[in-house]
Write a structure and sequence with these properties.
The protein is mostly helical and 442 residues long. The protein contains 16 helices and 2 strands. It has a two-stranded antiparallel sheet with strand order 1-2. The longest helix is centred in the first third of the chain and has 41 residues.
Length: 442
Amino acid sequence: MKFRRVLALVMIVVFMNVVEVRAAADWEYAMNRSLDWLEDALWPHPAVGSVGGEWAILALARAGRIEADAPRLRGWFAQFDRLLAEADALAARGYDINNPPSAGTFPSPIRRWVDFQRITLALTALGIDAANYHGRDLTAVFGRYVSNEQRHSPNRTVNANIFALIALNSAQYEGDRGKFAQALLDAQRPDGSWGLNPATASSANDIDITAMAVQALEYGDAVRRGLDWLFAQHFNNPENTAQMIVALAAHGMADAAGYYVAWLLRWFDAAAGAFRRPNPNSLVNFMATEQAAYALVAYWRLVNEKTSLFDMSDVHGSFDPAAAATRADFAALINRELGIAPRVFNDIPEGAVSRQNAAIMITRAARLIGIDTNLTNLEIFNILGMFDDGGAAANLARGPLAWVLRAGILSGRESYIFPASAINRAESAEMVYRLMRLGGRL
């Protein structure tokens, strides 16, 4: 009998360990599959917006899946720059985002504070200083606290204060963080919850807002009361569950976060690699998958002792598009985007990559993905002969240079190629992007 009890105890311990290991594997599997799904479903055309854009970029960047020089981000940057140009044209006519003549005046993806706050988080996750984006301080739009009476109507919500604080704290940007924090404390209801409208009674619909407020504030009585209220709620969709995970991870509560991670997985569709909403038997959904993915990334960062999801001190300001691209940078970029092994480029010198070395690397990558790069000697002679310095190209680089020029992957500057000049990181991303388009990878 004693032997049976011991055996039973051993079996229970073994079973518990198997369950624990399987649970760990399940959430990591779901995280990686959902990140894969975001790459496949949203790339290569992420859009500026709350769905299919910045939150997906945040999830992928904080998981180490993408960097600022990813060619597939070019469309997102281009769209954002166009929207900023539209806003500038309105500003030149005297329109202020905090006091426009109508709600629909500014381009819809960037007409609210929360839009600039979301974009700030995406840029910062990519290592780009949002306070110096092409010389523009994007945080200036929302960084100064303005009373509700002075705000444009779409900015009169609690989450405008929440994400002002989160965005400003993400990289210690300049702004009225103390005033935004106090506004949040003042908006907390007696039961510990927050809602878009503090004057109304709390409801289950306020789970998301309360969890986001907890994410934004430093731990203290307000956060404790907010968590007490949250622990008493029923989480009935993947989005509010995801926000709870991010809130708990932000305050280092691994065990509690793990409980909600397990609950979140009930909406995961393993066959699709994405999350369903609102019910576990609904169709997979972009918004649900984005929020679930970055919540799982937040948990992954916690258990791996990394900075939290919104603490981007590990990446802030680390990307300079004008900096010279090194051979390692360029090889890593090609490998990441095309799956080409870096050892293919072992004979290219270390240090900055010249335009002719970049042409050699791009041409080799093109061949490996099935593109015919062959040119006759006469074709090479004629193409390079169009440029005043075509004869200065190294012998090994003549064919590759001619091919990338003809394919439109590299452009001359007036009548020069500048074969020995270094390329910067932005130019290297452009070359890889054009190769991906040529090879049908976009």
